[in-house]
């Protein structure tokens, strides 16, 4: 029976006591510094995982720091990267729901802008792997379309294993064997290396899946281990990694044959699903039906062509064609003859019209010329001249045109309109 000093507390009572403790002014204004293990900026809040500088991230205590960005102030977080050493001024808060403790930052100062011990180690490992050719994309092997047996490396009691099994169950049947591993913390790296070696020593595996659920960069640090990377790169079995960390690509993802984001996605790369198989079947069936119909149409068209050619080579058909051509020639000749008659008739009419028109024009022209000649003759007629009072003078039967042709004593004949008179020139 509990004593009054050891009275049992409800969860709510204990949470209230803890909340009251952290509301103490001593926790209201604190300054802490450490290495940034991970950072996530976006939306109304920003989060940092802060640990001791130079410590192993798998064993170092981690402080979750949060910043409120409601009013557009990001505290210079855009310049902070994993591995930097920062100093944060803020306050501790306890949240009963989830029993979580958060350090709410108010000010941030970068003390050392550096990559951090683990990040430098990761870079050196990547450089070594690149020299060995293990980061070359051309060496990656495809996963067989139909696998008979796969090895699964994950935590035995983790949700990732159940997700993988559930996904495989809905796909084309495949045998699977679990090789339990530790996916975080001390001993995780050696556990993964041993499981990889055991799976490679066994026979009959078409693919190997290494997976776990999501987690912080600290939780996933074992997948940046050099020994793990070398074990994956040298595996004789094609490896699928599904570590579940999208913020930073692990080295294990870089050397594996295929990278997936989640265990479910990784398992979906093993064999097609029953729906996909049905779709493939329907697609092949449609292709076969289409090919059969196409071939049938092709043969039917060829048969029609043969029938047409046979019909065209028939003597009776040749006679009919010749008769048809003869009828066409006769029709064309008749049309041409009729057209020629019409053209000649039209030419005749045009010629008659032209002849009549030319005749009328010539007649009018000749009449006009005759009238002109008549007028000239009339003007030159002696009688017409005499009527105007003029007379003609002749000497020795010749017409006198000038007074110089006559001299005194010459005899001349003057002709008037009403008679003639003989005269003698006196002067």
Attribute tags:
43% helix, 10 helices, alpha/beta, OB fold (Dihydrolipoamide Acetyltransferase, E2P), five-stranded parallel beta sheet, single chain, elongated, 427 residues
Short description:
This protein has helices at residues 11-22, 117-132, 159-169, 188-201, 226-233, 251-255, 263-267, 274-312, 315-380, 382-387; strands at 30-42, 45-51, 62-68, 85-95, 100-112, 149-154, 175-180, 207-211, 239-242, 258-260, 392-395, 398-399, 411-416, 419-424. With 427 residues, the protein is of the alpha/beta class.
Plain-language structure description:
The structure is a single chain. It is elongated and about 200 Å long. The chain is of the alpha/beta class and about 425 residues long. It has a 5-stranded mixed β-barrel. It has 10 helices and 14 strands. Among the domains are: about 10-115, Beta Barrel (OB fold (Dihydrolipoamide Acetyltransferase, E2P)), CATH 2.40.50.140; about 125-270, Succinyl-CoA synthetase domains (Rossmann fold, 3-Layer(aba) Sandwich); about 385-425, no CATH class.
């Amino acid at each position: 029976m509990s004593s009054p000093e050891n009275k049992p507390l409800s969860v709510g009572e204990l949470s209230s006591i803890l909340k009251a403790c952290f509301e103490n002014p001593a926790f209201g204004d604190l300054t802490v510094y450490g290495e940034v293990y991970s950072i996530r900026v976006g939306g109304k809040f920003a989060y940092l995982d802060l640990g001791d500088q130079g410590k192993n991230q798998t064993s170092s205590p981690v402080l979750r720091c949060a910043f409120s960005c409601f009013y557009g102030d990001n505290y210079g977080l855009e310049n902070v990267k994993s591995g930097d050493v920062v100093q944060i001024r803020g306050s501790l808060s306890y949240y009963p729901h989830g029993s979580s403790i958060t350090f709410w930052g108010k000010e941030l100062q970068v003390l050392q802008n550096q990559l951090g011990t683990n990040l430098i180690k990761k870079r050196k490992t990547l450089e070594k792997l690149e020299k060995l050719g293990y980061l070359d994309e051309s060496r990656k092997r495809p996963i067989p379309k139909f696998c008979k047996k796969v090895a699964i490396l994950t935590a035995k009691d983790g949700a990732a294993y159940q997700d993988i099994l559930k996904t495989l169950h809905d796909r084309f049947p495949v045998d699977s064997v679990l090789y339990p591993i530790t996916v975080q913390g001390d001993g995780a790296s050696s556990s993964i290396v041993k499981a990889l070696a055991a799976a490679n020593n066994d026979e009959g595996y078409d693919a190997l899946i290494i997976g776990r659920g999501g987690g912080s960069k600290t939780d996933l640090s074992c997948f940046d281990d050099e020994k793990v990377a070398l074990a994956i790169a040298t595996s004789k079995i094609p490896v699928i990694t599904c570590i579940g960390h999208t913020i930073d690509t692990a080295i294990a993802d870089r050397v594996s044959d295929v990278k997936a984001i989640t265990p479910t996605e990784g398992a979906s790369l093993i064999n097609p699903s029953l729906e996909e198989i049905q779709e493939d079947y329907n697609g092949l069936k449609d292709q076969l039906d289409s090919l059969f119909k196409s071939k049938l149409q092709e043969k039917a068209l060829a048969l029609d062509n043969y029938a047409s050619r046979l019909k065209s080579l028939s003597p009776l058909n040749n006679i009919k064609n010749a008769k048809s051509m003869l009828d066409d020639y006769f029709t064309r000749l008749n049309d041409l003859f009729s057209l020629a008659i019409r053209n000649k008739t039209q030419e005749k009419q045009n010629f008659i019209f032209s002849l009549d028109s030319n005749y009328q024009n010539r007649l009018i022209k000749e009449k006009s010329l005759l009238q002109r000649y008549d007028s000239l003759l009339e003007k030159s007629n002696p009688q017409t001249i005499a009527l105007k009072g003029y007379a003609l003078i002749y000497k020795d039967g010749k017409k006198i045109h000038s007074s110089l042709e006559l001299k005194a004593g010459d005899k001349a004949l003057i002709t008037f309109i009403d008679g003639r008179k003989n005269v003698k020139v006196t002067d």
